[in-house]
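Input sequence (433 aa), recorded before submission:
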Amino acid sequence: MRLSSYVKIFPCRDNPGRLLLFSTRSFAKLLVPKALLAAIEDGSLTDKEQETLDRNGFLVHDSDEERQEMMAAIEEANRRSSRAVLTVVMNLDCNLACTYCYEGAQRGSHYMSSATGELLVRFAGGEYLARGKDLLVDYYGGEPLLSADRIRDISGTLKSLAEREGRRYEFTLVTNGTLLTRAAVSQLVPVGLISARITLDGPRENHDRYRPFLSGTGSFDVIIRNMSEVSDLIRIGIGGNYTRESYRSFPQLLDTLSANGLTPDRISHVLFSPVSKTLGTHLSPEFSEGCVSDDEPWLLEASVFLREEILRRGFFTPRVAPTICMIELRDNLVVNYDGVLYKCPAFIGCRGLEAGHLESGCNDYGTSHNLDVWKKDQCRDCAYLPLCFGGCRFLRLLRTGSIDDVECRRSYFDAVLEEFILQDIKYLRKKRL
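Predicted structure, token format:
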């Protein structure tokens, strides 16, 4: 047997005689003696060593066969998927005046109509529920709770259709949190609401500067109160947008959450992301994790620093895991408020990247979105392939004007992966060989 092509090897900082192995395919971590690598090469592993390495995904029988399996990984993931995920933009309106509003010129009083809502129900029911798929809808905006009645109507119908087909319907919200009152949540839980992701841009002073109400008053205290009132009814996730000047203040937000009873057991996850400029808009951080990245030193430092502070306080943040661009996942779609379909929220409004319409269904977007762009030697032989599958297509579009190649994340992972793994080990039980 041979060492997998998708293994990263790091020196053990606490023990010079050992190495830290990390499988980017299985995500297993092992501390091993340095001599073990030579034993793999010359075939002198003990039965126990070989069994442990094999079981954790570090050994393969044939490297070419392993690479071929990776080339088919997304196709296999699509085949195995039992759930469809729709991101539904209910409106492009908002009750906040964020200084970096990612909607840019698209923002306005644009709402999903009742007719488009009916088309959404018909499309989701026929395209997914009738084909035996469970359905998860992520309602988005703008501020989706400005369309709370429409969400309740759509969800009530889809939940009934799902139950009739023996399938499951659930939905989540990406919301600024100002309208997420207990009364609103109590009306939405019966029709499928399970969680909400709320943006808090650091402690009160910073948040209120960047995310005030239209009137100019701060929104922080309202959001904290709402979260406290609904965290027993639904899961609450926290996002936040930081800048070079503000990221070091974000740990104060975590302490404020705990001081207000929003302890790690009441928060499902915390994930902070930098404010990222895009094509005249901003890509919302709720959809940018694992996608858009930058190799500027301060951003790399910020990502490691904030992840450590989150984990140290007992909150959960995503561990190192595969990131497959949404455009590659067959049963993941974005539905704009006007019924136009896209494969990524960042593509909304990008001419030529429409993926169809609720009324007519999906187009063949394989060519326009260059779905197989990552299936080449550069990616096939890269140990990071299972983590990125070609990176963020939108970032490539932003930088070059077309999805003409992968957005390679090698330098990003070279800079942060070891630190992320060590953070995970610090808060997880170590495996030793």
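Checked by second reader. The first helix runs from residue 35 to 42.
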